[in-house]
Write a structure and sequence with these properties.
Layout lengths: L2 H59 L4 H9 L4 H29 L5 H8 L2 H10 L8 H47 L7
Helix pairs in contact: 1-3, 1-5, 1-6, 2-3, 3-4
Length: 194
């Protein structure tokens, strides 16, 4: 093996190892991030339910449904009072939205959870978590599975989108160069022996 090929092989082995480490570390953080997201989501849901409980108590005390209470507020001629109906309606919608997101993420399987998370992510909550997120060493089976998935994904991307296309282009270039050299040699008149 030539020195150049050996160095190239060593460099590629280094890239493989770096990609494995990066993939494992990055992907293994996903369960931790989703766990923190669920905790923050649960806190927002509890707060929204608490607000909704106040409106529900008013509705119960006045013998109307929550929808009827919102409609009464919405129908008020006073602009400030009418806005309270919108707040009630928005709070009901927010509770349903947060409950749906929480259930979807919690009930998803190990590998379905990231997709459920992405479908139901609240950008505000995710941004808040990201601003304080500290990577952790995963000690769960789920963290290990995600680490392995990260290795497979990054190596797959590297080999599928970078390494193999470059190798194919390089071989094609060398083949074309060899064909040109052969064509040039064939076009040369034979040397005469004297």
């Amino acid at each position: 093996m030539s020195v150049g090929k050996k160095m190239l092989s060593t460099g590629e082995a280094f890239v493989d190892r770096v990609l494995c480490v990066v993939g494992a570390v990055v992907f293994s953080q996903m369960p931790e991030f989703m766990q923190q997201y669920l905790q923050r989501l649960g806190g927002r849901l509890d707060e929204a339910r608490r607000h909704l409980a106040h409106y529900q108590k008013i509705a119960d005390d006045t013998n109307v449904t929550l929808a009827e209470l919102a409609a009464r507020f919405n129908g008020s001629m006073d602009a400030a009072t009418a806005k309270v109906g919108g707040v009630i309606t928005d709070t009901v919608a927010r509770v349903h939205e947060l409950e749906s997101a929480q259930a979807a993420i919690q009930n998803a399987g190990v590998f379905g959870r990231p997709f459920a998370f992405l479908r139901h992510v609240d950008p505000g909550i995710a941004r808040d978590i990201w601003s304080i997120f500290k990577p952790a060493v995963p000690t769960t089976a789920e963290g290990g599975l995600y680490a392995v998935a990260g290795i497979v994904v990054l190596l797959g991307l590297y080999y599928g989108l970078i390494r193999h296309p470059i190798a194919w282009a390089w071989k094609r270039r060398n083949r074309a160069k060899a064909e040109r050299m052969m064509a040039a040699a064939a076009a040369q008149p034979p040397e005469r022996l004297e």
